[in-house]
Fold:
Amino acid sequence: MRLLPCLLSMLALPVLAAPPPRFPDTAVWHRRVDAAPLHPQSGSMLATLQSLGGWGNGDRFQIDFSFHVARAAADAPRFPVVEHKVYADYYQPDCEPPGTEMPIPPDAAFEGQGGLSCDNSANDCHLLVEQGGLLYEAYSADFEAGEVDALCLAIWDLNVSYPPPGRGEHCTSADAAGFPIAPLLPNADGVAAAVARPDGDLGHAIRFILPNPRMATDASLGGVGGRLYVRPASHAGGPSGPVGTVPYGVRMRLRADFPFTGYSPAAQAILRTLQRYGMVLSDGGNIALTFESDRHTTADWSGLGIDAHTFWNGSVGNRQPVRVTDFEVIDTGPRIGETWDCVRTAVVPGEGVFRDGFEG
Structure:
């Protein structure tokens, strides 16, 4: 008779699709920061950011659900990644050598698109695919005539923890901070699983972005055009803000006293994650948060009560909107001037070993 209650409890758990791509628990993204020391200028940096306009898109802590993360079977067709056809450029040695192949399953789709076509002259056109513990992330990409033309293909080995410079000092990836993308995206299945656990969270830092004029520059650091970043970043794109604001790569956590009143259980799991693991500044743009779409998940955002306006529309449920000043800046080390002189010191994809000066 004990078997029936056990079966019923198992049936009550959420049925999930393939889990989101994640690194080992020892990776920097999975380190809790709720007790980490604050940066001495935490308050002033956030005040400066707020004075510049706060979050992008009208100071809204808004969510973009346009990223798709495909899972490829072992026998999925593979296609070479070649130099960008529009810009006649490719980021080297930061990214994998042109000609490197990536798997593309039939159900894959570019960011914001319904399939394998993207106007990379007007969109970011990320393509994210996981296969056998390797994560393939292409930026500014399109697929045509059996080729993926892109500005960058970054391959991440999900079985290892990367060193502090990530894939290499001053090296970019499919995101300007040199970060992986998919492992930092909240996923509807992951949120559903967190809701099913008492006091649950996602267990990883979350990706966020800001307009480039709101990110710090400092000419005294010797970077190109004053560009700079802090750990866990390894690169900065095009920041153009004053020295006193937050830098590329900054890790911020939600204040412990932020009120959850009016937020759904799913939203509370995300807020709890922001308190415990924080969020990292990954790229330039206007919509602060980026979540994985429902394309490849069993759970869906609508069923969880999460939409683009969840964290900024205070007129719903009497909730407090999430402001820049509701966060604290973690001290992750000194600012680093961005020279754009990439030196790869990274995991050899699929081998799980480190090699200095790795170029492919």
Q: What stands out?
A: The longest strand covers residues 78-83. The radius of gyration is 20 Å. Confidence is low (pLDDT under 50) at residues 1-16.
